[in-house]
Amino acid sequence: MSEYQVLTIIAAFVFIYSLVASRLEKTPVNGALVYVGIGMLFGPQSLGLVDLNVDGEAISRLAEIALAICLFTDSSNADFGVLRRIEAIPSRLLLIGLPLTILLGLGLAWLIFRDLSFYEIALIATMLAPTDAALGKAVVTNPAVPAQVRESLNVESGLNDGICVPVILFFIALAAGSVEASESTKLMFKLPLEVIGIGFVVGLVLAVVGGFALRTSASRGWVAGTWLQMPIIALALSCFGLAQWLGGSGFIASFVGGLTFGALTKTHKEQFLNEAEGMADAVAMLTWFAFGTVVLSLLLKGLDWQVLVYAILSLTVIRMLPVIVCLIGKGLRKDTLLFMGWFGPRGLASIVFVVMVIGQQLPGNDRIVAAVTWTIMLSVLLHGLSANPLAKAYGARVGNADI
């Protein structure tokens, strides 16, 4: 297959989609759903017009880059006035809801996947616990949704994938037998402190230093024109790359960096972020397209009724029940709880975690990959189709009333 054939098809798809992107964003058929669908259609298992010959590592790197930029730009746009009023909601979602999601997912996986080891089951539960900031963008940027709900979901999705990284590394080490049982307790406390702590410090420091340099340069007219699209991308990837290099969570660093940059930057911010968001969308489009070209083979490995049942449970009961439980006592409306519980899409972070697990060649790899991949695909389909209609309906129902 000619590389120019592949280039032509991808470029043509990007061009055509760009012509109608703004219109499609207002419909149920948009974003990742289109990218994955076109990738599947043109991929080697269907028409065979595109074979990117990319391995899991390549898709993982694309997903990491897209997610890092998305986390940085989304958190930079956070409304701190709203966050101060509702900080208890995202705090509960992260500190209570996330652990409950992992525990409930583990319990149900234990009942369904009787052939997997405890640590492999724990991996599935943890890999599917974090929500995806990129897939959830259709909701968290929709003005029809009350600001309190948008900011809560944005902060949750921005931090939960980074929090899950040390947990996944812990279970991978135990499942692969690379850590003795006597060392597991030490590892359990060491990993979160290192991974989350390093990510937080790196994001904070780079955003303060880089943001100051960028604001100073912009105020003197040293950065303008086409260069406006570069600084935020470079700063976001610097946060991610340095944190990963030092053994921390690049996702935490990207989110904290964006939050800090947004808090300290008052002028030129919108101009810088608009340019960066276009790049984030482009990388995300390529990631989902590449994922679509290889996903059919992943979906078929280890497929059985248990995998499908767990995927459905992961998007419904395992996500929604912990959200409702952790927000008891906050006086939220029932439709708000259901809305927040439903919009917990799984996507780029889970793709990265899948590649991490595949590299370990665990005995239950096929089942683990199938369970996570089917959940991602169902999320792309169901959350993609329901995002705009439900956001519009929920926004109209709530109106100016308390959430």
TrEMBL record:
Origin: domain of life: Bacteria
Domain Cation/H+ exchanger transmembrane: 12-392
Alphabetized Pfam families for the sequence: Na_H_Exchanger
GO molecular function, one term: antiporter activity
GO CC aspect terms: plasma membrane
Record-linked InterPro entries: Cation/H_exchanger_TM, Na+/solute_symporter_sf
Name of the protein in its database record: K(+)/H(+) antiporter NhaP2
The species this protein was found in: Symmachiella macrocystis
